Structures are given as structure tokens and as C-alpha cells.
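Minutes, project check-in

Agenda point 3 was the complex the collaborators sent over. CS summarized: two entities, 676 residues total, and the question is how they sit relative to each other. Sequences were read into the notes so everyone works from the same version.
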Amino acid sequence: MNKVAAGVPLTPHSSTASAGKSIATLLLKLRSVLALALLVVFFSSMTSSFLTANNLSILTKHVAITALLAVGTSFVILAGGIDLSVGSVAGLSGMTAGYLIVHGIVFASGDPHFLPIWLVILLSLLVGGAVGCLNGLLVTRLSIAPFIATLGTLYVGRGVALLISNGRTFPGLAGDAARHNTGFPAFGQAYLLGVPSPVWFMAIITLIAWVLAAKSPFGRHVYAVGGNERAAQLCGINVCRVKISTYAFSGACAALVGLVIASQLEAAHPATGQSFELNAIAAVVLGGTSLMGGRGSIGGSLVGAFVIGVLADGLVMLGVSEFWQMVIKGIVIILAVAVDQLQNRVQLRLAGGR
Amino acid sequence: MARRMLALAVVLFLPALLPMGCKRTGVSHRKLIAIIVPSQDNPFFQAEAVAAAERAKALGYDVRIDSHNDDPYSQDNLIDVAIASNASALILDNAGAEASISAVRRATKAGIACFLIDREIGASNIAKAQIIADNAGGAVLLGKRFAEIMGGKGKYAELLGRESDTNAQIRTTGFHAVLDKFPALVRVSAQSANWSQSEAFQRTETILQAHGDLNGIIAGNDTMAVGAVAAVRNARMDTIKVVGFDGSPDALSAIRAGALDATILQPAVKIAGMAVEEADQFLKTGSTGVPERQLVPCELVTRQNVDEFGTFQRIKPEKARE
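CS then shared the predicted structure for the full assembly.
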């Protein structure tokens, strides 16, 4: 893909082919949006309760989880890496929050100290960021392949999450007024202006990520590192720092997801987030981001997350069997990548390449 | 060129939509009962889901079966979808006693009558009913039978279920309430095999290496018991008595074949049917007419009475024991 990327413009918004031939590429580029529209039309015609305000609110809330993970992972993938640890990090951050709320912090001597909720949330996010940094360090300093490094932290993270409670669930995260740590359930359950809080998180994080990716020097550096690492290094980009930042951002996003889920369940469950990384990667790929790095966009990942979410909830509402749901999800992912390759070839031909 | 590419793209996406065109749910005016179970590839959960669905269809409801794969978050999503589809009642085998409370509360608030089967949650007065098999009673029953076939003496190993699962603890407590009264019955090894057949196989192989003079194995569920039976056979130590718990089809055929000595059958089919009937009663009259927590007794299955049982249900009346 790197070779292809060298033939076509590297950046996501400067690839306008000559006007007459651009309709095909435009349609192909908008394919995930088209697929999403198709799905919405299809499900609306099949079930009357699909296109209701209530269901759309619930649907978007579900999509927010995948979207937050996908947006976080997007940077890692754009920079040519992969992050398999996000599901474990989500579980770990939820368990961290659960531990802090239920047991507090015990210093060398004396009684446990219970932290206010904002600090619990901050610490749990930091745990996620720290695991991300660790991923980054393993990849850059020890030159471990990203797939292996994050596979390792996937297991370590899940193991530590289970160790924190010895495999049990932390129940009753509502907190205790006497300990001044109530309010955690509101984090993922509250509504602001009629919109559920996870949707706000999704909107804010996506906006930040979009500005970072499309408008900031950092974003240029990420695309450059993913497109051609050696060239980026020769241009004076601090490749290591860029990579570590992408993993840290991904870890923090995953931690946020873990907190939202723990808050919604009012309980922290160590197995939370199992196989979330696959949903996140699927959303990123559906959004047209190349797994080889250097090509793709944040907006694409958001649309990808919506495709997966609409498909998942819609199929459940239709009463399609669980086994068919898996088959269909797999087919959609394969088709998305097949069309992606098609787009590459079309663009290449239109650009007068090989 | 452009047209060809577009046509190709459309054709590529179409097959994905085909398998879904099976039924319209939006046009029906019948009430919906949502059934959510842990998984549909496990015979126990499959039996309870199918039993509930058949009973509900017979009573004139629309039904939908989903599974949460023991993931509380996935369960949360499925309950949201049930709320959005205006389900009248929910039959739920939940994903964790504590982690399920908020989801059940949300469904109840949204006007869905919740009926919990097989597993309880750690809160009362939210669900309309919590109907479970009497695991503690069943464990005592199995403990007694095990002591009997062991002749009240000898060395045995115990295979425990997943440590975080309440049923694993309830069962082992029930076993030991009986077994610990026999001073000549010595537990030489206790290992968790996480309810899994392959783990039980490996653990048992290791245990047999360490204890060549083992006389019996008591397992927390049938999946592990069947794994243990395979290990015992491989080691040609067929004199070892093995007992399990659940009454799975595999275990029943192992009992028929003489490889397994006893199991406890959980009446999953009966429980699922009860839940649906109580839901029907509640939707028609506003009350189930029975207390929230209901314990359904388990049954001991041995070589003598194995033919009286089908898939997680009694199919023939009890014969007088000799």
C-alpha cells in the first residue's frame, strides 16, 4: 500500500482527480456513507420501531463505544501500527475505577482514603494512557512488531484486570455519600440536552481527533510516519514520539470506554471489552483506512463505527439469529476491503499510474 | 467506466443484505417477549431458550431470542434493543448477579416485565420473578450419591467451576456439606477447570499422574465430568467413579454407556416454561400470583433412571426405586 500511496496524493483531502472522471472515485470514496444509508433504509422498512427517536438515541449510544475505540485506534493505524490491547485496557480501566470506588487507596498505614469521582475517572484514564505509552515504548525502543507488542499487553491487561478483584465483579459503583464518592453512574448514564453522555464523549473526542488529524502538524506527522517512516525520519520528524503519542491516545480512548461501560452497568466486570479491538479495527477498515498506514481519515472511522452499530442493533431487532449476524458482519468487512482495493486501482488508473 | 464501477459496488454490497430478508417484525400486533440467554451454542441455554420460545408462541406472543455470551455490556445493549422494540416481557438468563442489576432495573422502568431464569441477581423487587434450579439441594443430593458409590471411603479429586461464578461456590459447598462427614473420604486434589471440557481433561490427566490410587472424581458440571471421563479412560483407570452436575445430553449418554456414574439434572425446560407462563399471567392480570424467588428442585440421574430423562427435562414419570 505504501507504494500505491506514493502514486496518489498522500493526504486525505487533496485527492481530486480530473473533474469528468471523478464521479466514480467520489462514489467509491463515499461508499461507507452509501452503505450506511442503505442499511438505515433497509432496517427502517423492515421494522417500524427502527426509525424512532428512542431507538436512534439508543443506537447512537451503542455506536459511541465502538466509535471511541475506532477513533483512538485510527491514529495508531494511520501511523502504520496496530493496537490489539484496547479491549483489555477498557476492562482494566473499569476495574481500576471499581477498585478505587469500592476499596479506596490504602497508604502504608491506616484507613483507606476514598477519592472524589473526578479523580477516580482521571486516574483510570491515566492507567489507559500509561498502557498506551507502554505499547509505544515496546514498539519504538524495543522494536517489537506492533501486532506482537499489543498482543502481549492484551494478555497482561486482561490478567491484571482479573487480578485486581480475583476475577470477581465490583458491584454497586453508585458510591457512598459518607465517603463522598457518589455520582459515578451519571458519568455514562446522564443526559445533556436530551443526548446521552457517551454520545457527547464521542462527539468531543471525534472533533478533537479530526482537528488533530486534518489540521495540525501532529496529524501531518502521523500520516507521514504511516506513509513512509524512513522519509518521515529524514524530514526531521521525531518518529518515536509520534508513535508513542498515537498509542497513548488510543489507550486513553479505550480507558474512557471502560469507564462509560462500568458506569452504565454500575458494576465493573473484569471480562469487559473482550474482542472490542476487533470491532474497532473493523470500523477503521470499513471507514477506508489502510491497515498499512498513511491513508484514511477520522470521519471514515466514525462512519465505519456507525455501519457496525446499525448492523448489530438492526439485525437484533429483526430477530436474525446470532450465527447469521456473525456471517453477515464478516461479509460486510470483506466487501468493504474489496471495494477499497477497487478504489485504489481506479484512482491509480485515473491518475495515469501503472 | 464509472457506471461499471458503480454497478460492481452495488452488486458487491447486495448479497450482504439477502440472508436478512426473512421476516417482518414491524407489522405484527402481537405482544413481543424477548428471550436473552448466555449463548445459543450450549445445549443447556439452547434448551431453555427453545422451551421458552415454544411456550410463548403457543400462548400467542411474538418471540425473539438473543444471547449475551456472558458479557454484561452486550446484555445491556440487547436490553436496550428490547426496550426500543417495545417488548412486553423479558425472559433473561443474566450475565452476572451484580453486573445485571442496572440493566434489569432500566428494563423494568421502561415498562418491560422481567422474568429471570437459571441465575439470580443480587437485588429483589425489580424483576417480577427469579426462578432458579435448587443448586444447593442438588449438590447435597449428588454428594450423598457420590459417598454411596464410593462406599464412604477412598481418595477423590474435585473439579471446580469458574471461581467467580456463584454456582461454582454453591455446588462445592453442597458437596462438602455431605462429604466432609465421612472421615475416610479424603479429597486429595481440588482444581478449577473453569467449566471447560478440555481444561478438565488436562487437569485430570495431571491429577492421575500425581495420584495413581484415586478412587473417584466429583465435578462441578457435566462438561468437566465428561472431560474427566475421557482422561480416566485414556489412563485405563476405569474403576474410578466420576459424577457430574447439570444433566447435559452428553452426560446422559455417558451414564447410559456406563462411563459416568451419576449427574444432577437441572430442569431448565421446566423453568423456562414456568417463566413464560408467569409472564403471560402477569401481562393478563397484572400479577404473577406467586412469590418473586422460586426454587425448582433438581433430580438425581443414575444408570437406573436415566431413561426417564430427555434434554434438561423429565420425560417419563418416576418409577418406584428398587
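Noted in discussion: DSSP finds ten helices and 14 strands in chain B.
Follow-up: revisit at the next meeting once the mutant set is ready.
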